[in-house]
What we know:
The chain is an alpha+beta fold. Helix content is 31%, strand content 28%. It has eight helices and 15 strands. Strands 13-10-9-14-15 form a five-stranded antiparallel β-sheet, with helices on both faces. Strand 9 and strand 10 form a beta hairpin. Helix 1 packs across helix 8 and helix 5 packs across helix 6. The model has no long low-confidence stretch (mean pLDDT 93).
Amino acid sequence: MANIGVFIERYTMxxxxxxxxxxxxxxxxxxxxxxLDVLFRADMYKIPSYDALFIRAxxxxxxxxxxxxxxxESNGLRVIDDxxxxxxxxxxxxxxxxxxxxxxxxPETLFLAxxxxxxxxxxxxxxxxxxPLVLKAPNSSFSMYVDRVATPEDFVRVGKxxxxxxxxxxxxxxxxxxxxxxxGVLGGEVLxxxxxxxxxxxxKVLTYTEGGRVIxxxxxxxxxxxxxxxxxxxxxxxxxxxGNGLYGVDIKQVEDDFVVIEVNDNPTINAGEExxxxxxxxxxxxRYLVGEWG
Length: 294
């Protein structure tokens, strides 16, 4: 029997679907004869006494989740997410450099410093990469600090706003779509496939209104045996460029081919959403954590 810890920050559990997924993971562990405990920040000192750790908290090298990951790894535990994956994925420039080095198909992507944020450069990039452009702050998640710009003036304004958080920003060709593919990859194998639908009159899956409301797109899951093999091939290639852990690979479909928008550590797995139709997600997670594969 293995003892598995699930590290949670209370503030990251805002929906019943999130806690539902943890409960289903616990049921899977129990069914296989293992023990699963939920650990909060105050329980961090207990991590070395476990056999594996699964992090379900916002990951960032400056967060407690990273400390938990480092503590687990240094004590020989199998851990999701591993510290290196957190470091790479929480810096989009680092993450995109890994994808570029591995020749993963992706939209044209540039990294700009403050001196590059001029009206002339904005006009040139809008002409060469197309209108609009997508600008991203490197250290962001859940679609925050990701915006579209259609004029050189907005290019400079939004770019300088994002530079308050970093010394470089990401500029990417915009790819229009009604949904994003999300492929969950664990240990180099596809765990689940779903689509995040883009709400009407929006251009990304998750939007924050000026009034503070959050607008989410619906989730539609697919049988992995029935999706285009090229989709999964691209996802696995992108995940391998980062590491051998658990990743959510966001992909746009361009006719019959696919381009990677980004690779996320700590991907969302919610009860009734990403796991819908693929209940084996939890069994495979437990088996990976206890070292039966991967």
